[in-house]
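Example S7 (structure tokens).
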């Protein structure tokens, strides 16, 4: 990718825990080589969003006006539904799409349709690292021949409320670390769409959705969320753990997620970039 002297016009989809953190941080610290041009929100969020964004940012409640903002890059921080509703259209319209709801790509047919739309539009689907780290190392190990990848996500029991674990496990009564799911990344992404985005991104960078082992853990002693990748290849192993606080307005989300998106954009716009 060449670096342009003209800032990339970015549209942000979503104004929840991550979207707000991105807008707030972007308003105080510019992002190298990128300008926030549009924000796609729900109708009821419009007034609050208008107060939050700097002047000149188009606050949109429909995809047509969002696309009319002449975007080169859309960043999704809204959820699987937004990727399903808008992904193909954005990519086919030559807008690159960075999506954080990576679990939406666990459906092979949908992932293929997005890839085709990107080919048709000459655009790219970009997967930010999100609230984990180490995908660069995983890609290197894959190149060398990976033999195993396990991803473990540990969160306080309350973070697993309103998931398939809520019922079979009495989450309020747990007194010790409890594995609430163990299986493939494909099943984790299907059953836990709001919690298994990182399982999906680790799988896509590594051994794939069927061969990546995922463990989801409810731990009453956990004060935040943590993600652990353990991978092995013929000559190297990789162990990466990221732990941190969950977002105040959404305990399923780690606070670092929004910053990972801004860091990825900063890197894209930098004269000296990490690749
Ligand atoms: N890859 C990662 O590291 C990672 C980590 C956490 C969350 N996520 C993903 O990010 C998503 C957002 O997380 P969050 O904590 O900000 O969630 P959230 O529920 O706090 O906010 C999502 C916001 O997006 C809005 N929204 C949904 N569909 C929309 C659409 N089509 N158009 C406009 N707005 C729409 C919702 O109304 C809500 O305000 C999650 O659903 C999850 O899929 C990824």
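Recovered sequence:
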């Amino acid at each position: 990718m060449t670096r342009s002297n003209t800032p990339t016009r970015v549209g942000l989809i979503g104004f929840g825990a991550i979207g707000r953190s991105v807008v707030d941080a972007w308003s105080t610290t510019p992002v190298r080589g990128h300008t926030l041009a549009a924000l796609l929100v729900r109708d009821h969020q419009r007034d609050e969003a208008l107060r939050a964004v700097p002047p000149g940012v188009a606050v949109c409640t429909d995809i047509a006006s969002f696309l009319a903002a002449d975007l080169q890059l859309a960043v999704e921080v809204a959820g699987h539904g937004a990727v399903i509703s808008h992904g193909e259209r954005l990519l086919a319209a030559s807008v690159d799409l960075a999506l954080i709801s990576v679990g939406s790509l666990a459906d092979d047919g949908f992932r293929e349709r997005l890839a085709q739309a990107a080919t048709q539009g000459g655009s790219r689907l970009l997967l930010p690292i999100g609230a984990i780290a180490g995908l660069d190392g995983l890609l290197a190990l894959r190149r060398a021949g990976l033999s195993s990848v396990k991803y473990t996500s540990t969160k306080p029991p309350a973070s697993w409320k309103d998931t398939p674990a809520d019922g079979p496990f009495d989450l309020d009564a747990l007194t010790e670390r409890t594995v609430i799911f163990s299986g493939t990344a494909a099943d984790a992404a299907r059953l836990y769409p709001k919690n298994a985005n990182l399982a999906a991104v680790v799988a896509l960078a590594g051994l794939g959705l069927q061969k990546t082992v995922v463990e989801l853990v409810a731990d009453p002693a956990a004060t935040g969320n943590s993600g652990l990748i353990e991978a092995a290849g013929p000559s190297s192993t990789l162990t990466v753990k990221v732990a941190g606080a969950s977002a105040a307005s959404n305990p399923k989300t780690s606070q670092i997620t929004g910053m990972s998106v801004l860091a990825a954009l900063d890197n894209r716009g930098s004269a000296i970039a990490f690749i």
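Notes on this example. The mean pLDDT is 95.
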